[in-house]
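Students often ask why inverse folding is considered easier than folding. One informal answer: many sequences map to the same fold, so there is more than one right answer. In these notes we will look at a single instance of the problem. The structure comes first.
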């Protein structure tokens, strides 16, 4: 009798394990996806902060750019300067043109970073939506499908996280426009 009872116990344990396996697997899948959702949410908050910082910096730079343009135009009218070679002889105009060159380059870099972070934020939002969709049907998803989604999330996180740890502006990537182009865009034309 003991071997029969022992055999029944093994069968009962096997049934419990088999029935309990999907629930445990589903719980593991849910936890893994929930963890990725948390990681994405934290990263999105960091990105939004970076975007806010960059937009504020850009606003200040654009304000200063406008002030410098006004100074150039005021000096231009006062000294009746309408030719580029003559403008370079005027110290105030030449210095303001140089400052505008740098400000325009900084603004261009900020625009690139803002665009990058906004795009990254949208990609992360899409991944969260996809995770939420998968969580709604978690019981029927295969482990391989979940792992594929987690791998995609990790790839995006691995790309974006290092970017959020960098300075918003990297002057090594700055492209300064030619001073003559700045003059052409800022100066008043003779009547």
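Output (designed amino acids):
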């Amino acid at each position: 009798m003991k071997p029969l009872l022992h055999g029944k116990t093994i069968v009962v344990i096997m049934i419990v394990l088999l029935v309990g396996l999907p629930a445990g697997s589903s719980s593991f899948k849910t936890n893994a996806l929930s963890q990725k959702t948390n990681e994405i949410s934290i990263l999105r908050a960091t990105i939004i902060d970076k975007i806010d910082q960059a937009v504020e910096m850009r606003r200040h730079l654009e304000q200063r750019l406008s002030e410098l343009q006004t100074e150039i135009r005021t000096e231009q009218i006062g000294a009746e300067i309408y030719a580029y070679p003559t403008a370079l002889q005027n110290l105030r105009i030449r210095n303001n043109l140089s400052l505008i060159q740098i400000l325009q380059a900084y603004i261009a870099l900020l625009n690139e970073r803002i665009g990058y972070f906004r795009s990254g934020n949208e990609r992360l939002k899409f991944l969260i939506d996809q995770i939420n969709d998968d969580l709604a049907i978690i019981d029927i998803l295969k482990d391989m499908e979940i792992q594929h989604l987690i791998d995609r999330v990790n790839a995006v996180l691995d790309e974006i996280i290092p970017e959020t740890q960098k300075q918003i502006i990297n002057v090594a990537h700055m492209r300064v426009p030619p001073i003559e182009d700045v003059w052409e865009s800022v100066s008043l034309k003779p009547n």
